[in-house]
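Hi R.,

Here's the chain you asked about this morning:
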Amino acid sequence: MDDALKSVAFHTLGCKLNFAETSAMRKTFEGGSYEIRPFGAVADVYVINTCSVTEDADKDCRKAVRRALRTNPDAVVAVTGCYAQLAPRQIADIDGVSLVVGAKAKFDLPALLRDLDRRPAEAVVHRTDVNEAVDFHHALSSGDRTRAFLKIQDGCDYSCAFCTIPLARGKSRSPLIGDVVAQARLAVEQGFQEIILTGVNAGDFGRYTGQSLYDLLVALEQVDGIARIRFSSVEPNLMEDRIIDLAAESARIMPHFHMPIQSGSDALLRLMRRRYKSDLYRQRVDHIRRVLPHAAIGVDVITGHPGETDALFRESFDFLDRLEVSYLHVFTYSERPNTHALTLEPVVPVEERRQRTHALRRLSEHKRDAFEARFVGTVRPVLFEEEVKDGHIAGYTDNYIRVRAAWRPEWVNRIVPVHLTNRTLEGVFDVG
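And the predicted structure, written out as C-alpha cells:
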C-alpha cells in the first residue's frame, strides 16, 4: 500500500452492535501510522460498516460511498459489515469501492490495507464462508460520554424466516464473563455511568460456555462504579423469570426491557419460525408488571410478513392493543435474498404493509402517551448527556422516559432526581 495513506475515517450503518464494532475497528488503527478523522473530513481511507436488515442496505451503502468520494475522490474506500458478507460482488461493482471485507476479516483491516495498491483497478474482495467467522471480538462504543455500548454476543443459531443475520454473522458465540467484566471496568475508567449490553441475540450469552445472561448480570452488579446497567433486545423465550426478578431487586439494573414479538398471532409466529407463542410473551409481560410496575417494556413488531392475512394482522393488532407494554418498534417487512419467507404466501402488497405499519405506530404513540402520563408529578432519576441542543441538555430516566432541561454543564454525566411535570407535544418532559 502507498505510504501516503495516513488517515482513516469511519461511517456506520445500522444497529448499536454495528456502532460498537466500528469502535473496535477504529482501535485497530490507533497507535499506528493512521490519524483518525471524522467521516466528513478529507481522509486517505474511508471504512463503511454496513447493515443488511432493511431493503435500503444497497442504497445506503452507495450513498455513503458517494459521500466519501465527494470529499476525497482519490480515497481508498473499504466496505465491511453484514451487507459486505451477503452481497460482496454487488458492493465490489459500486464505482469507487477498493476493498470489500466479510465477517471473518473485518477486524484485520490495517493488515488488508497494507497489502492493497492505493486504488486497485478492481475492488479486492476478502470474503469467506460465514461459518468461518467463529472468533469473538470485543467492542465498546458510545454516542456520548455517558453511556457505553458493550458487545457481549455475536451471531445467531436461530433460523427465523425473515432474517439474514445468521448468513451475515455466523453462529452464536460469546466471551467468558470475566472478559466482559474487564471491558466493563474499562468503561468505568473512561467515565461512563451507564453500560448497555448488546448483541445479535443477547439472551443467548454463554450458551456454549456453561454461563448465562443471568450470571453475567450478577457479576456486573459487583463492578464498582457502574451506576446503570441495561441490556438490549432479549427474546421472550430467553427472558427468564430470574432475570426479571434480579432487575426488580437491583439498584443498578434499570427497569427497562426490550423483547421482540414480531407478531401477536400464533399462526404467523409459526410461519416466521419463532420459538415461542403469544401466551409466553404475555406471561413475561405480566411477570414484569407484577414485580416492576413502573418498568418500560418495548416491543419489536414486523408488519406485512408473507402469510399475514388481514385476519392475522387484526389478531396481532388486538393482542398488542391489550398488552400492557410501553412502546412498539414497528418494522415493515422487506424481502431479503436466501430467506425462507420468500417461499411463503400470500405476499402482502407493499402499500398494505405500509398501512399496517402506520396503524401500529399510532398504537405505539397511544401506549407511550399512556405509560408516560402515569409519571406526571413524580420524581425519577435522570442521567443527563453531554450534547447541547437548542440550549438544552437531555437524558433518560431509569425507566427510559426522555427528559429535557435548560443547559446546565454541572449536570453532564450525572444522575439527577427530577420532577416530571410538563410533557411536551413532542413526547419529552421539560423540567426546571
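DSSP finds 13 helices and 19 strands in the chain.

Let me know if you need anything else.
M.
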